[in-house]
Design brief:
single chain, 142 residues, alpha/beta, Immunoglobulin-like, 4-stranded mixed beta sheet, globular
């Protein structure tokens, strides 16, 4: 009986991984929303999805914003001009910035499942143009 339960759990886990998507976010000098942007800047994902940041233009990276990660999620910071990906493991909001262009408003928001940390994420103080851009992104949270 125990072996059957373990097999069922293994199959369920592999089905979850097999159904995972890879979502690409480009890092751009200019996009639809203006200068220094992630595109798309708001992403709705599911736990297990892979988020890939692509440095379409040079001079960018992707770094988690302090205070804007779900509980249990690990902070991250990519190298400049390098493709970077992480697997969204925890439900909630993930705030992302481009370190050199943060004050210019280069931010993104990833919602994984329910926005369980919405209040904490909304309370994080943003710099420069990031304040307005992040406010717009937070309005898209479902």
């Amino acid at each position: 009986m125990f072996a059957k339960m373990m097999m069922a759990a293994a199959l369920a886990a592999s089905a979850t991984v097999a159904g995972a998507e890879t979502i690409e976010i480009e890092m751009l000098n200019r996009g639809e929303a203006g200068a220094m942007v992630f595109e798309p800047a708001f992403v709705k994902a599911e736990a297990g999805d892979v988020i890939r940041f692509v440095p379409t233009d040079k001079g960018h990276n992707a770094e988690s914003i302090d205070g804007m990660l779900p509980e249990g999620a690990e902070a991250f910071k990519s190298k400049m001009n390098k493709e970077f990906e992480f697997t969204a493991t925890e439900e909630g909001l993930y705030g992302v910035k481009c370190t050199p262009h943060y004050a210019m408003g280069m931010v993104a928001l990833i919602q994984v499942g329910d926005a369980v940390n919405l209040d904490a994420a909304a309370d994080v103080k943003q710099r420069g143009k990031s304040k307005d851009r992040m406010a717009e992104l937070l309005e898209q949270v479902e």
